Amino acid sequence: MWFPLSTSLSSKTKSNRQHLLLNSPPGRSRLLHTHLPCSYLPEKVRSSPGCKLVYVARNPKDTLVSLWHFLNKNLKADPFPLERAVETFCRGVMPFGPFYEHVVGYWEESEKRPDEVLFLKYEDLCRNPREQVRMLAMFLGRETNIDVEKVLWRSSMNRLKELKVNKDDAVKEGQHVGNSAFFRTGTVGDWKNYLTSDMAQRIDQLTRLKLQGTGLSFDDE
After folding, report:
1. Is the pTM of this model over 0.90?
2. Annotation says 102 is catalytic
3. What Enzyme Commission number does this protein have (predicted)?
């Protein structure tokens, strides 16, 4: 989120987030990130002049596999079986709410307010990063002074993985895991290395059902 409030999002509760966003003094524009569903965003965020929302969605099968790896890397208990991960994903049991409702919420908001909400797909960012960066810059009103190549270099997976701060496994205050837990492969289509054909078909069927009539679709490759 890009909006003119001097604050940062708390990792606590929805009410804490609302308190921060509603009571922070005005200041320069800030860049914040959140996993909150669209419907949970405070009204102040939606109605604040100059507020811009950028949402990045990913293929549901890659999302599932990525989350499964993340949980298994950080859970202190027994390993989380892939079969169970698929089952809970299809039932809508996710850390930040059901996947499809989460994605569709921001998609529909971007359709209603294209000047305030930009919906991006992770696959498009990987396949055509220059075009996507230019689109993002135009959306944010920064197209006249952007160095696309520098942005791509600074945000590349290879560079970010090699930064000392992101190799750290230590759990810092306000975090549940170390920074290294957020970096794996970043590739598109990695689900093919893990999901069986039955698992993939089940998720594909659910995807068609959940996205029917929305105009939204995801590529498999």
Report:
1. no
2. no
3. 2.8.2.-
